[in-house]
Every structure is written in structure tokens, then in C-alpha cells.
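Take a specimen:
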Amino acid sequence: MSYPINFGPITVPSIPIDDVKIEVELDLSLACSPNLVNRLSAIQSNGITVPISKIVAFSALHFHGAVYDFHKIGLNRSAIKLAWEDIASWRPRAVIRSRGKTSKLTFVQMGNSRVQALVTEIVGVGVGLVAASHVFQIPFRLWYPTPKLGPTDFCAPYLGGEVHLECRGRFQRGGWENAKQQVYKKFLGPNSYHSQLGTLFSLNTTPNSRKPDLVLIDPPGEVLVLDRFHAYRAILKHYAPFFGAQGKFEFANRLQIVSEFDNYDFEKYLSEGDESLYRMRGWGSGRTSFTLGSVKFWGTAWKADSLPFNVFYGDNPDAKQKSGYAFFGLAKSIILCLAKGELENLVDAQITPWQQRDEVAMSSAYYVFEDGTAIAWAPSIEALLELP
């Protein structure tokens, strides 16, 4: 006889938002590309200061293509939730180092070596993508996994070509030199790309380690010039899953189709837009919206019984509300850019993630992410409708 297992509204603690300093060393034994020498040297001198929450958010790309949106919070947030549930038991937190009073990222080392390997891989991806975004100055939304993770883990469009990223993580620098050799082997293999970055991150149990947390390995060579529209195609592929998660499969599929146009048709799309996308830009009936400042977001509202309240309010002991109503949307201006082919505006856009919440009445909360998606929450449908 079998028995159903119901976990109920079980949640993990909120993701820490404390800033931590990742100290960096360079391994340029493969000869650094000249155009990156100054930038890499500056990163080595200053390190990378980043919120723990950003590392977790970036680590979610590890689960790209392997996420189902059970909670109806969007594929990206579902991936972040999945990453955090794997990482949380290892208790990442900011601890002040005794010398220099620097805030460092530390973990508790658990006893399961197989799970430890997974956690180091996930965190290694998050820190690696943060570092690569600094090195190449490429925003997170343009990075995506390479097919079957080979010959490298991730890639992104860059100066008319693309760059590749190989990530590694180790606990307390265990197997450190072997991990470096794995990166070298990838870079020097028969399918090697010309512009690559290797990252190797150490998850430490103490803030007082005397060795840097992160090694950046930069191989030789200039960028391999590929499709000149590579960055624009990556933008379309990034936003397509958002529309699929909203149930707008026709719009999502059309974005995917346009991203695979040959260069002649793609150039026409960039200059004239796409008639099918423009026709569907209004989303039809059943859509809703809200406005933050001067920005309107279009999307979908739903009863968020399974959405943990502490996603928005942290571990507030006075927070009693555990469910409510939520809205997930995308800036209207971005939707119009996709329809009109005005992708240059999206590639160059710098969107700063921010949040706003009612700390007193706990009646609403907003989160805006760096790709222009946003989520709003209210305790009731009436309160949600009263939002701007």
C-alpha cells in the first residue's frame, strides 16, 4: 500500500543579500589576450564585491532547460529557487574577516561528498558567471549554456563573435591543481575556441583564508568572428521562455523562429520588425499590467498560494501572511522592441535590479530584475488590483 507525501508550504530561509568580497588571482600562463590585460589586472587588485543573492541568481543558469515552473513564478525564478534549495543547507553567509575587516563568503561543510560536488558546481557556476560578466562586460541575460555543455560550459556574444566560459568549484581548494588541469584541457582541445575564460572558485568554511577565493584563467587568442547578429539572436532566445511561461506560446515560438532567420531575413527584421510579432504584441484578452514610475509591465496575475511570503519580506518574525496574489510581467517597452526589431536598445540597456515593499502594513511588494521582468505581490486580489 502506498501513501501520499504532502510537504505542505515548506520553505527555506531567504537568500542572504549581504555583499561579500571575492578576492581574485590571475593565471595567465596561457598568455592573456592583450585587450583584457588592464581589466583583468584591475579585477585582481580590487576583487569583486557582489551580493550573495546575485551569486545564487546567476548560479540558476546551471539548471537551464531542466526547470518546470510548478509555482507559476516564471522559469528564471523557479531556477533560482531550485539553485537555492540545493545551496541553502550549506549555509552561505557573509562573515567579517579578522584582518582588514573584509566581508567574506563562507559555508558550512556537510558530510555528503556527492552532494558537496553538486553544490560546488552550482556555486562555481554562479561565481564564474559573475566574474565573466565583469571581465567581458557582458550582461547576464546574454549568457547561455553551450549545447551539451561542450566544448565549454557557457558562451555569450562578444564583438561580433562569441566568448566561452568554463567554470569549476572546489571546497577548501580540494583537488585544486587537478581542476586547473581540467580547464587547460578544455581550452587546448581540438574544438577550442579563440576567446575563453576559466574560473575556479573555492568554497571556504572560514573568512580568514590567506589565499584568493577565485582564479581566473585566460587563454590566448583573439575573438573568433561568427554571425554578426549573434548578440541579437541571443536576446530573442532569452525572452522566448518568458512568453512561453505566460501561456503565449505563439509569441514565444515566433521569437525562436526569428532568432534562427538567415542573415538576410534577420537584417530585414532588425530594420522593419516582424509583422507577426507586432500583431501579437498586445497579448490579447486576459492580460493585465501594472506601472512602476513611468514603466508599464504586461503579464499575468494568479493566486499565489504556493509562493512563500518570505520571498518578498525575508525572515520577518511578525509576517503572518503566507499566500496572496502575484503578478509576473515584462516591461512593455521591451515587448515593443522585440516586435519592432529594435534589439540594439536591449543589448545596450543597463537595468539595475531593485525592490520596493511596504515594510509597515506588509500590503505589497515589487521586484524588478536586470532583464526587465518584474513581479508584484499583494495579500488579496483587491489589494493587487489597487496597485498602480
Notes: DSSP finds 13 helices and 17 strands in the chain. The chain has two domains: 19-225, 230-386. Residues 221-225, 306-311 have pLDDT under 50 and may be disordered. Residues 19-225 form one domain.
